[in-house]
Amino acid sequence: MDLSNENIIHVKTEANEYIQFRKLLEYKNVLAHAYSLGTDINFRTSTVTKKELPKGEYEKVKENYKVLCNSIGCNYINLVKTNQEHTDRIKIVNKKIKENEPDINLKEYKSIDGLITNKKDLFLSTTNADCILLLFFDPVKKVIANTHSGWKGTLQRISVKTVEKMEKEFGCNAKDIICCICPSIRECHFQVEKEVKDMFEKEFKNLGDLNNIIKEKVSNKKWNIDTILINKHILEKAGLKKDNIIDSGICSVCNSNIIHSYRVEKEGYGLNTAIIGIKNI
User: Fold this and answer.
1) What is the pTM of this model?
2) What is the C-alpha separation between 280 and 255, in angstroms, rounded?
3) Inside any domain, residue 219
């Protein structure tokens, strides 16, 4: 299977597989990035109940990070990972905390769903199993962000809040920012009941495209929602150029043989990771 399309390339090595965005590869001398592939490889660093993994399992995850980071030319020791909890909280990363270990499962990143930095050699990591992961890059100010936007994060407009924080803290201009949308659940499989549908309808009633965003599938019982389209719309309204919003176009559920999916795997589901960093060259 090759997931490559006009926006992404599917890279296969002896050690692993991952995708990269063609747009970000235009800046390969500046950036390192990847979205992991393979359901036999897991990037879960804590249990579903937020407890730390047993040491042996945690070491396997660290090794997975090391292999992926090596593949894209970065040192996994310089990795900084969110402790996601479907919030709209975004943290600026100025330095590593651990000296000889990646910054994983740290209290400093508790309940954080987005990371921003302009520092070189800091590689930001988020994880997903259906949720949207967004990689941001401002090539003018040399600022990056990595944001986790599940359906709750989308309702809270965390993607727009990431852009606003980049503008406020680093002087970025939204028209310069590139946003790449990693593989995630798509409208074809994101089906909800009335309570959730009503929340989306209320929050995004002014987008003017609700007929394409929310589609009734079972009369008065089930609706499919296009959270990707929502994020595209609100990012454009935040000032991003349409051409700078780059979608992988890949559904995690449709491709659950190679991408972790909570809706397919259920309890004990695994996680993929998205990594982005500014190289120190």
Assistant:
1) 0.97
2) 35
3) no
